[in-house]
Write a structure and sequence with these properties.
Number of domains: 2
Number of strands: 14
Number of helices: 10
Largest sheet: 7 strands, mixed
CATH class of the largest domain: Alpha Beta
CATH topology of the largest domain: Rossmann fold
Structural class: alpha/beta
Shape: globular
Radius of gyration: 21 Å
Strand order of the largest sheet: 10-9-8-11-12-14-13
Oligomer: single chain
CATH architecture of the largest domain: 3-Layer(aba) Sandwich
Strand content: 25-35%
Helix content: 25-40%
């Protein structure tokens, strides 16, 4: 398959700037935005003309369209799942259309982009439909992401997996906020955690995470998946709290997360585009967190934090 995939995202015009920022996280080579909400004003300011093509005047002024183009060697499904989850987290109503591919085919055909991949020093991420792989000494994490975010191919997920490795040992308890496919929760158990609680606001993600847990031999009480908004359904304190979500939600979460952390617990955050890094750092400082380590890949940032003494 040599064609690029066009992803067209329709949003309310008032949300186009934030929607565009999120879409820019998906590809490194830019996006294209159609926004006609101030057509006459911009035509005059830019070109000093007040004669505008009739077709343009007929455009819906209340909507804007963000175009993202996915390269042939990339996984389009991962991009779409990322966009849907991030827009949901930000409360941005959206409609996503995929060019030249019927949806019923899309949900299966994207699998050609996802193959077994080693992550960190101890894990191999294996798509459930792939039988040809060599794991060596690595723990095999079997994953069927469905339409939930989290295959291990996205930089934010890899950063979290690599960081989790350093903090999981026998007896560790983990809270995974915005668990998506369950990949981080399952990885923690494979690495030796005693108990993991995952939370996601999306019912499809919760169902997918539960099924992936079962596929790897994990179920309650060691592997508990909840549908909820951040920690509204969570009880207890944990050794590790991981949140692979957007910067704005991490900032909002910072004011509450300490109450779910044991005294020496680590707070791992990712999903932070580098242009929002300082905003997140400011929230850490405001709510009493000390940054212990910073990791970066492809314009994304992952932090390891502890409660300041």
């Amino acid at each position: 398959m040599s064609d690029w995939t066009e992803v067209k995202i329709s949003v309310d015009a008032k949300n186009v700037d934030k929607a565009g920022d999120i879409a820019s996280m998906v590809v490194p080579y830019g996006i294209y935005i159609e926004d006609y909400s101030e057509l006459e004003k911009e035509a005059w300011e830019i070109a000093h003309i007040d004669l505008i093509d009739e077709d343009l005047l007929q455009k819906d002024r209340t909507k804007a369209i963000v175009h993202v183009y996915i390269a042939p060697q990339e996984n389009p499904q991962e991009a779409v799942a990322f966009l849907r989850e991030r827009y949901s987290a930000e409360g941005i109503d959206n409609e996503i259309v995929l060019n030249q591919c019927r949806n019923e085919d899309w949900e299966n055909n994207w699998k050609q982009y996802f193959h077994p991949i080693p992550v960190g020093e101890k894990l191999l991420i294996r798509p459930a439909w792939e039988d040809d792989y060599e794991a060596g000494d690595r723990k095999v994490l079997n994953i069927e992401p469905g339409l939930a975010f989290g295959t291990g191919t996205h930089e934010t997920t890899r950063l979290c997996l690599q960081t989790l490795e350093k903090h999981i040992e026998e007896g560790t308890t983990v809270l995974d906020i915005g668990c998506g496919s369950g990949i981080l929760s399952i990885a923690a158990l494979l690495l030796g955690a005693k108990q993991v609680t995952g939370v996601d606001i999306d019912a499809l993600a919760v169902k997918t995470a539960q099924e992936n847990g079962e596929a790897n031999g994990f179920s309650e009480p060691e592997y508990k998946i909840l549908q909820g908004n951040l920690t509204d359904k969570v009880n207890g304190k944990f050794d590790v709290v991981v949140a692979n979500i957007v910067a704005d939600v991490i900032i909002m979460f910072c004011k509450d997360v300490a109450s779910f952390m044991k005294d020496d617990a680590v707070f791992i955050t990712s999903g932070i585009i580098d242009t929002r890094e300082q905003d997140v750092i400011d929230a850490f400082n405001k709510y009493g967190f000390e940054i212990k380590a910073r990791h970066t890949e492809g314009g994304w940032v992952c932090f390891e934090c502890k409660k300041a003494v």
